[in-house]
Amino acid sequence: MSVEHIIVIGGSAGSFPIMNILLNRIPKNFYPPIILCLHRLKNVRHGFAEALNLKTNIRVNEPQDKEPIKSNRIYLAPANYHLLIDYDHTFAFSAGEVVRYSRPSIDVLFMSAAAVFGDKVTAILLSGANTDGTDGIYAVHKKGGITIVQDPTTCTIETMTASAIKNVPVQYILPPEKIITTLISLFPITN
């Protein structure tokens, strides 16, 4: 069955605890694939996906270059590579220049998702210390996708979310516990 809608989530400083909460509450039969882009140390290749897997009902994996995107999966951008989505609904890696001090870049992932999936993208931006994600969530907005930003008052570091809210007409500004309930209401579970 082909993927019809994707969820992309970006975060940086302070987002890991929130990501654990979100992943813990996602039902095991949640259909849309979730693609995570979290700023991380470029020289630490292992342990991050494993730590996230302790908190979720759906296995978190780092995809391979050219791997097809599948439903009911959670993917994590690998360390020190930009993660993009190709028009054939596969992943692509890039070792291109850092974007806003980051590789993987949230902007790069979100913009490629918007280019490929158009209005069938839900973009979620969490706590972080720079403005990576603002251009990407704007691209999703321009294509008619769903945009969700963590309420800056609930962020460890609000720079990332405050920038997105200032520059993009975001649809939802939510505390962490409301993000997952909103996702489940947008994509109801069917057995």
Helices and strands, with pairings:
Elements: E1 6-11, H1 15-25, E2 34-38, H2 48-53, E3 60-61, E4 74-76, E5 82-85, E6 91-94, H3 106-117, E7 121-125, H4 134-142, E8 146-150, H5 159-167, E9 172-174, H6 176-186
Parallel strand pairs: 1-2, 1-7, 2-4, 3-4, 7-8, 8-9
Antiparallel strand pairs: 5-6
Helix pairs in contact: 1-6, 3-4, 4-5
Quantity of strands, as a count: 9
**Pairing-aware structural class of the strands and helices?**
alpha/beta
Task: Write out the CATH superfamily name.
Answer: Methylesterase CheB, C-terminal domain
Distance between the termini: 15 Å
Give me the CATH fold name: Rossmann fold
Q: What CATH architecture do you see?
A: 3-Layer(aba) Sandwich
Inertia-based shape: globular
State mean pLDDT (0 to 100 scale). Answer: 91
Count of alpha and pi helical runs = 6
**Major sheet: order of its strands?**
3-4-2-1-7-8-9
Secondary-structure element order, N to C: EHEHEEEEHEHEHEH
Strand content: 15-25%
What are the segments in which pLDDT stays under 50 over at least 5 consecutive residues? none
Looking at how many chains there are and whether they match, the oligomeric state comes to: single chain
Description:
The chain has 191 residues and is α/β, with parallel strands linked by helices. It has one domain (6-186): Rossmann fold (3-Layer(aba) Sandwich), CATH 3.40.50.180. 30% of the residues lie in helices and 19% in strands. The protein is built from 6 helices and 9 strands; from the N terminus they run βαβαββββαβαβαβα. The protein has helices spanning 15-25, 48-53, 106-117, 134-142, 159-167, 176-186; strands spanning 6-11, 34-38, 60-61, 74-76, 82-85, 91-94, 121-125, 146-150, 172-174. The strands form 2 sheets. A 7-stranded parallel β-sheet has the order 3-4-2-1-7-8-9, with helices on both faces. Helix 1 links the parallel strand 1 and strand 2. Helix 1 runs parallel beside helix 6 (176-186), helix 3 (106-117) packs parallel to helix 4 and helix 4 (134-142) runs parallel beside helix 5 (159-167). The protein starts with 5 loop residues before the first strand and ends in a 5-residue tail after the last helix. The mean pLDDT is 91.
